[in-house]
Structures are given as structure tokens and as C-alpha cells.
Amino acid sequence: MTLLLQIMVLVTSVMLVLLVLLHRAKGGGLSSLFGGGMQSNLAGSSVAEKNLDRMTLFVIALWVISIVGTGLLIKMGA
Predict the structure, then answer these.
(1) Is 22 contained in some domain?
(2) Helix (H) or strand (E) holding 15
(3) Which one of 5, 47, 57, 77 is most buried, by most CB atoms within 10 A?
(4) Are 73 and 1 in contact (CB under 8 A)?
(5) Residues of the domain holding 70
(6) Residue 29 carries which DSSP code?
(7) Does 26 fall in a domain?
(8) How far, in Å, CA of 15 to CA of 63, rounded?
(9) Model pTM?
(10) Buried b or exposed e, range 49-67, using 16+ CB within 10 angstroms
């Protein structure tokens, strides 16, 4: 069970990095410092962006659950 949760942590970590990189920069951060602030903002966010947000939150939830589960199993000595 511990091995399964550790694999889940690894997979969700990679997925989380990829999902965060897919997000559009919303401005004001380091991306605008290096020329990313020249983009024009659209009036609203698209359906794809909303779905990407939902998918990212789902993967974050799986990531947190797998880390807490791994920690509990290690603490119990399983």
C-alpha cells in the first residue's frame, strides 16, 4: 500500500507541474518582467481555462491525499 501511495505522489507531482505550466499567465509576476506583460487580456476566461483550473484542483487534492496517506502509513510502521 505504501508503494502504491508513493507512486501516486510521484505521478501526481509530475501532472501538477505540467498542469501549472499549461496555465496562462495572469500578469504582475515574473512573466511580465521578462516581456510577458505585453499580452492583451481577453474579457473573460475560456471554458478550456476553467476546465484546466478544475483539473488542477483535482490533481492537487489527489496529491495532498496521497502525501497524507503515505505519512500516516509510514508513521504506523506499515
Answers:
(1) no
(2) helix 2-22
(3) 5
(4) yes
(5) 1-13+48-78
(6) S
(7) no
(8) 10
(9) 0.73
(10) eeebeeebeebeebbeebb
